Amino acid sequence: MRIEQHPILEFRRGRRITFTFDGRPIEAYEGETIAAALHAAGVRVLSRTRSGAPRGLFCAIGKCSSCLMTVDGIPNVKTCVTPVREGMVVQSQRGPGRLNPDFRPREREVRELRAEAVVVGAGPAGLAATRVLLRHGIKPIVFDENPHLGGQLIKQTHKFFGSRAERAGVRGFSIAEELLSEVEGEAEVLRQARVLGLYFEDGKRVLAVAHTDRLLLVEAEEIIVATGAEERFLLFPGNHLPGVYGAGAVQTLMNVYGVVPGKRALMVGAGNVGLIVSYQLLQAGVEVEAVVEAMPEIGGYHVHAAKIRRLGIPILTRHTVVRALGGERVEGAVIAQVDEKLSPIPGTEREVSVDLVCLATGLNPSTRLLEQAGARMAYVPELGGRVPLHTPHMETTLPGIYVAGDCAGIGEASTAMLEGELAALSLLSRRGLELGGEMEATRKSLEKLRLGPFGARPRAGKEKVFALMKGGSGG
Amino acid sequence: MAEYRSTGILMGSELAGKVPPRERLLKRACAVIECVEEIPCNPCEEACPVGAISVGDPITNPPNLDFDKCTGCGACVGVCPGLAIFLLDLSGGSVRVTLPHELLPVPQAGDEVELLSRAGEVLGRGTVVRTRRAGTTSIVTVELPAEELLWDVRAIRRSS
Prior knowledge:
The structure holds 2 protein chains of 2 kinds.
Chain A: E1 16-21, E2 24-29, H1 34-40, E3 47-48, E4 54-55, E5 68-71, E6 74-78, E7 89-91, E8 111-120, H2 124-135, E9 141-143, H3 172-183, E10 188-190, E11 193-201, E12 204-211, E13 214-225, E14 229-231, E15 244-246, H4 247-256, E16 264-268, H5 272-283, E17 287-293, H6 302-309, E18 315-317, E19 319-325, E20 332-337, E21 350-352, E22 356-359, E23 363-365, H7 368-373, E24 377-380, E25 385-388, E26 401-403, H8 413-430, H9 436-449, H10 456-471
Parallel strand pairs in A: 1-7, 8-9, 8-13, 9-10, 13-26, 15-22, 16-17, 16-22, 17-18
Antiparallel strand pairs in A: 1-2, 3-4, 5-6, 5-7, 11-12, 12-13, 14-23, 19-20, 20-21, 24-25
Helix pairs in contact in A: 2-3, 2-8, 4-5, 5-6, 8-9
Chain B: H1 4-7, H2 12-15, H3 22-27, E1 30-33, H4 43-47, E2 53-54, E3 64-65, H5 75-79, E4 85-89, E5 96-101, E6 112-116, E7 122-134, E8 137-143, E9 155-158
Antiparallel strand pairs in B: 1-4, 2-3, 4-5, 5-8, 6-7, 6-9, 7-8
């Protein structure tokens, strides 16, 4: 099912096309991904494990591997980030896909590129960094593994907080449009370009990039890594069922592709993401049974909680999801109260009738590229997990390599943009530009956004990271 | 821990000093800003054409409204990212609340709607007087059937 009318968004759909799924024709729109098109057609089970258990979508942004299918004979394709094409042959898999022995890949020459600067990730941090680089005469190459640029900004339908400088009062997707209009055409921006590795050869930095079906080797003088974050999973029986989605995946389906994610949802987690996505579900015409939160209090802003409470959505603190019910897809869920140790209290279980369980239980920084490159890391729970050590100016332990946004510690899109700007200013300073004043001002703006009780955790986390960086430790 | 942190509903004690007094509302409409937490945000302060809202420095200060300066224009209602600002009005014998609304269908003047409390309970039915648009947010003014509802109605829903 597709969303025809939305209070905030207009869906500009592409040309109608047809592809096949396990031999059956499916109608789709050009510009959407295979997984979104299948979801719109009512297909929830994308593949099966070796034992036959169904697998559906989970993250919808290419970070997990829940949506792997065989596409035009190529197994293990991430269908959530692969655009659908006319005549495509899409097949579900059972277990790890098998390559057809007769399959011969089209031979493509490796393309070699050189750049003064490379930005990995075209989300808020990467685009903000790119904009600053362009302003100072450097044209970076920007890579993003998604078919759409803008990272998670493109599905944020709420108005941003902050001050005018941080675009407060403007909806996230509009901020993405603004950033993209300044960057596209100026910098070289490659979509569906997955950076596979970052290597040091003869003192040079080389990136290996899979760009659609071609390998790129990119020699870069400097690199800004802004690879974002991925949603945390939660352990409970039935969590494998199609219909258990990351809250971000639900946002992608509804707000990027205009696909109805389900009829009635259970939201797990009352942080800002859980609260905001619950509101967005209502806007997309989806009922929300309740928001369950294991902690004794709501994690997100009161104003976000108030928006859904007054529209009748209960927020059940000290509650969690115990299991998801159903054979082939979610047909219900059991929730229960939890004790101080967050264990379900026997006798408090209650069945709820939902076909969608959204997990908004936090994010982990996506740091594999920096880890692989050898950046020093540390486990900082306040920042969501393992993060690369960095200075207050976003320099990592690897010279000439900078980090910004959620992959440097989970924060907000507005802080990610400022970190991106800081990383770019650091890069420019290293190249000899005198930017002390601008850097100081940006750092001050960033500190301002982390004031108050909600900024306490990221603030503490960053302090740890800066101290470890100074002390030269970490592992 | 304040109770609203577990319920999501502001109580009288948290709203003390935030709600304009009745005598003030008899003169003309006035905003009520239901924003009590220290979050980094100040578009309301910038949007107010008469300087009635102050956030100041640091930006995490909760906004403070000068009831006497407020003209009830509603500029802040459409910009608040938290959809936490409402207008209350008892002037000219009317009982009206103005609230931000982002669900379809867009309420139209004359529509009968259900009146919802901060907890989503149906408190009665009211009539839409006027809808204006601030971008894609609708700013809806609703006539309420009784004055006591003015302090509790904070959302509307299409009558079922």
